[in-house]
Amino acid sequence: ERERWFFAGASYGLRTPLASLAGNIDFLASRGASDELVAELQQDTRRLARLADDLLALSREEAATRPNEIVGLDKLARAAEAADVEVAAAQARVRGDRDALERALSNLIENARRHGRGRIAVETGVRDEHAFLTVADEGPGLRAEEEKLAFGRFWRGRSGAGSGLGLAIVKATAERHGGRAYAEGARFT
């Protein structure tokens, strides 16, 4: 509980200095600072802002109660279809929090874009009376020893990119909905 409050407080507390930092970077740019310096500072600020947002999302997800709305995972998947995202959506409904499930799906797709290769496939359906949502790509995926580690807080894998919280948010969302999150190579379910 203390850890959850810490994450919520830290992420909320980071927002004001980050907004100030972004304003100061804009001021530097207007005063002739080098394009390289401004670009680097902007990138660092975006990474910190994403970290603050992810910390807050994880804290909220872990503190949230079990949702009661009927959500079609198939509908969420179809809404995520894009040029690089192919969807095979069989009907799959859960009692859930639509916003949290959309964020989890978005995190999985973004991970596939950032760390995977080739076509991204999203699939939904029901297996053994349990609804599932899977996001896969054509890349090499995780090694067997990485599959369990990937859903831990701040785990960033071989690339070192991102905040390391996206899959932890996916896991917390799945567990809050009475499910689980797991990886098999380049398939995240």
Secondary-structure map with pairings?
Elements: H1 2-30, H2 35-63, E1 69-72, H3 73-79, E2 85-89, E3 93-96, H4 98-115, E4 120-127, E5 130-136, H5 166-176, E6 183-184, E7 187-188
Parallel strand pairs: 2-4
Antiparallel strand pairs: 1-3, 4-5, 5-7, 6-7
Helix pairs in contact: 1-2, 2-5, 4-5
Write a structural description.
By secondary structure, this protein is α+β, with helices and mostly antiparallel strands. The protein is 50% helix and 17% strand. The chain is built from five helices and seven strands. The strands form two sheets. The protein has a five-stranded mixed beta sheet, with helices on one face. The chain has a two-stranded antiparallel sheet with strand order 1-3. Strand 6 (183-184) and strand 7 form a beta hairpin. Helix 1 runs antiparallel to helix 2, helix 2 (35-63) runs parallel beside helix 5 and helix 4 runs antiparallel to helix 5. It is globular, with a radius of gyration of 18 Å. The mean pLDDT is 84.
